[in-house]
Amino acid sequence: MEKLPNGPFETEREARAAAHEVVRPEYGWSILHETQNLLLLERACAAAGVELGAYDRRILDWRSGFEDSMCAVVAGLVARAAAAARPGPHCVTFDLTNDHHAELYFVLTQALEDFAAKERDQAAWEEGNSSRERWADLADAMRTQVEIARNGSR
After folding, report:
1. Looking at residue 11, what DSSP letter applies?
2. Torsion over CA: 46, 47, 51, 55 (sign)
3. How far is the C-alpha of 59 from the C-alpha of 38, rounded, in Å?
């Protein structure tokens, strides 16, 4: 799914230009048709992981009858709200002391251990590639932190 130009928008012109980046107007037209506006709204919902029900689709269909700039604003709001609700790329939260997460703990530590070993093997093959050694050291440090979180809290 392509990245939608999500705003925030300061003018109607900005919003319309964003809509036209996602869905091109038909040849000879300067605005989007209702079916194109609907596509714009559906793409925004899909990219945000929004599950649509029958009534939701009915409202999107109704909304698609408005100007493409208005549809772009709604699509941008959906996308920005979804992005704001997602944790950042460095945020992983789960309770490793909870026995329900024992399998996750095992998979995570095994994956980090395997990755470190693979990087060290590759570094040796590449005659001491320091970048691969650093990745292996980082994986070891991450595995240690996972083990501390699991065992240190018990």
Report:
1. S
2. negative
3. 10
Cα 5 from Cα 15, distance rounded (Å): 9
Name the burial class of residue 116, with classes exposed (0-12), middle (13-18) and buried (19+) by CB atoms within 10 angstroms of its CB: buried
**What is the spatial distance between Cα 105 and Cα 143, in angstroms, rounded to a whole number?**
10
Total-model pTM: 0.54
pLDDT tens digits, 28-85: 888 898 999 999 999 999 988 899 999 999 999 999 999 999 999 999 999 888 888 7
Which residue blocks in the chain are alpha helix, DSSP H?
A: 12-22, 34-48, 54-63, 68-85, 102-125, 130-151
Distance CA 45, CA 9 (A): 18
Q: Which residues contact 110 (CB under 8 A, 6 or more apart)?
A: none
Residue pair 73/7 in contact (Cβ under 8 Å)? The answer is: yes
106-112, Cβ contacts within 8 angstroms, sequence gap of 24 or more: 108/146, 109/143, 109/146, 109/147, 112/139, 112/140, 112/142, 112/143, 112/146
Phi-psi region of 7 (alpha: psi -120 to 50; beta: other; left: phi over 0): left
Classify residue 27 by burial, with Cβ atoms within 10 Å: 0-12, 13-18, 19+.
exposed
Average pLDDT over residues 122-133: 80
